[in-house]
Design brief:
about 120 residues, seven-stranded mixed beta sheet
């Protein structure tokens, strides 16, 4: 059973930074992609970034690349999302997700962590 627990959200001023963490437990994750999504009020959930746990390859929503950075600590089974130069438009609930490489979908989701950026 895969479990994902996000942490690190909170209130930050525009221009500030936050680092989100996603602690994963369950089977070995070497065959998984890990990703961050977000959902703002009244909007659909959108992709933020992903990382291949075994290869370390990273993928980003183009508009966020350069401000956001995804990384993974295999020893801690934890994935991070470093967010810099935050804007009010980044306010959302951020979700961690896991999916088997090649499946084309994410089957496991965390409960989400709220990020609020004040202008």
């Amino acid at each position: 059973q895969v479990q994902l627990v996000e942490s690190g959200g909170g209130l930050v001023q525009a221009g500030g930074s936050l680092r989100l963490s996603c602690a994963a437990s369950g089977p070995t994750f070497s065959g998984y992609n890990m990703a961050w999504f977000r959902q703002a009020p009244g909007k659909e959930r959108e992709f933020v970034a992903a990382i291949s746990w075994s290869r370390g390859s990273t993928y980003y929503e183009k508009s966020l690349e350069g401000r956001f950075s995804i990384s993974a600590d295999n020893a801690k089974n934890t994935v991070y999302l470093q967010m810099n130069s935050l804007e009010s438009e980044d306010t959302a609930v951020y979700y961690c997700a896991a999916g088997i490489i090649g499946a084309g979908k994410y089957d496991y989701w965390g409960q989400g962590t709220q990020v609020t950026v004040s202008s």
